[in-house]
Records
---
Amino acid sequence: MRQNIVAGNWKMNNTLEEGIKLAKEVSAILTANKPNCKVVLGAPFIHLTEVVKAVDSSLVGIAAQNCANKESGAYTGEISASMVKSTGATYVILGHSERRAYYGETNALLKEKTDLALANGLTPIFCIGEVLEEREANKHFEVVKNQIEEALFHLSADAFSKIVLAYEPVWAIGTGKTASPEQAQEIHAYIRKVVADKFGASVADNTSILYGGSCKASNAKELFANPDVDGGLIGGASLNAEDFYGIIAAF
Ligand code: 13P
């Protein structure tokens, strides 16, 4: 059966020193209180090597927040999937709405990044989600289907089974406005159906689909109680160990 996962996305926050401190705090809390789910920390590239060392790897996995769409070579400033892998990180967040909106990442580009992440043995946490205008126009189903279709439908069922999906409605990210448990369940069930129609019921059943967008300790329990919500991708509330643990403890 699919895994429940609570993943933090630190985004562009924390100096190296602060990141190591936070990773150690999270690991210590989880050593004392064994989690009932997989826990992942999404750290900036330059933190990866150190936060991998700072945590108990049996309790906490480490994710990069991006990787390049090229294998290697003359791409100044880029970080490849194999470089991420060499740090000891095992996950990579791909297609976050901030990457799509501010850095022009398209589904076609994300297809390339996904292939390279998988080829290097990383687990992609692949983000999808609609903006407010799309939700208001009742286009959210169509939008997420298109994102999955264009970036992931070329994969074999076996390759797709290595992917974690994260549904993050853009209107809920960093706004304090959370999708209601009913809204989350409705679209997560739809996403699982899209996966089932393409890759089969068993792959769909085994795919973890996380919710992201103003998820915090006070609303995590009711969100995670839904049958198709398998955890969360957490921004702001992952920047403090106690707050983050409050969400982990919802499982
Ligand atoms: P917030 O939890 O800060 O809304 O961010 C969600 C997010 O974008 C995680 O990737």
---
Amino acid sequence: MWGGRFSRGPAGIMEEINASIDIDKRLWREDIAGSKAHAAMLADAGILSADDATAIIGGLDQIAGEIERGEFAFSAALEDIHMNIEARLKDIIGEPAGRLHTARSRNDQVATDFRLWVRSACEDMETALNGLMRALAQKAETHADAVMPGFTHLQIAQPITFGHHLLAYVEMFARDADRFADARRRLNDCPLGAAALAGTSFPIDRNATAKALGFDRPSANSLDAVSSRDFAIEALSAAAITATHLSRLAEEIVTWTSPLFGFVRLSDAFSTGSSIMPQKRNPDAAELVRAKTGRIVAALNNLLIVMKGLPLAYSKDMQEDKAATFEGVDALALSLAAMTGMISDLEPDRARMLDAAGQSYSTATDLADWLVRVPGIPFRDAHHITGAIVALAENKHLALDELPLADMQGVEPRITQDVFGVLSATSSANSRTSYGGAAPVNVKTQASRWLNQLNKES
Ligand code: ARG
């Protein structure tokens, strides 16, 4: 494709480091769409004859069929997807193939292809996130009133509900989906027609190609068009943040499924056994989701490091953008699918969670709140009194609601029998009705709000 000024071909090792076809063959659909839009525009602008454009577009359609059917022979000697397709076009239609590259360079070609690919990857991630959110919201609705311990420092803190815990992740994943949507909106400028770096002297119509490819507008600066990859960095940032959220949920699943917790059971479909210990049910999928975060964050880091320090405009360094992006997106897609499957299938052990929710004096705050609400004691004093009552109960190896009233009155005479109404884990969780709180009524409202919204979106 560029042999005119060369007297011999590249060294083997040069071909190996230079070729990107093994990676960028995934851009074939985008490359063909971009070339068809370019050829149609060239013909409309009178730069290419209608016959040549028809031959080019027909040839490109034939190539698409060949690739789709697995009949296309990709060649490393032809370096990348752009030259592989153009060379095949020449085999099929002959001389007019050479006119396709008028007013275009591989620099604007690859920038266009890659933007199209990242755009649809963002859409796919949004769809996958919506699926995961739906699974979480459904599980939350079913278990809106399942009381479980809420933790801080992984110490039992206060009773909450399982539904509330799951909906916390729905909020996080909704923001992640929004970040992908935002990245998608911002990347939607079309580089095609920027040519190598300076634009072209041909009377091309960049609005037409932008429109044909579903872009909002042509990019306004030819140097920016061919040398920016922040659109991929932004999508990978969204991916990295999503992956850290997935990883936290995965970690909770690992903890919850440990027999020491026994809060949830994963289905057989999402558990693995041990080759030596017949009793084992391992949460391998959750562990792998947790670990894939490494790849996804690394992909972001990879591309940031590739791009830093590159002068304008194109440098071959940028060819490395695709491996990083594909790897990050693939790992995230797999993680989202696995997490959605695990969540849909998992079953909480409601009795065990309720039992744990009542441990470790988890309703001490409810006792302090009662002292504020009923006898009108200032919260700081109520906190101190409650501490003394908890210490007394602990000495007697009793739970708060097992401690006799007389013992409590020994610490604070204004306590009455009425206090027992707030000391169980269930009454505690039920009482958290402030906006955004963990009470079952709130969870039901929020879960159905999410399910309505998600059903509208799909
Ligand atoms: N395979 C190249 C890439 O992915 C295409 C652009 C090549 N441009 C160039 N000037 N060598 O970046």
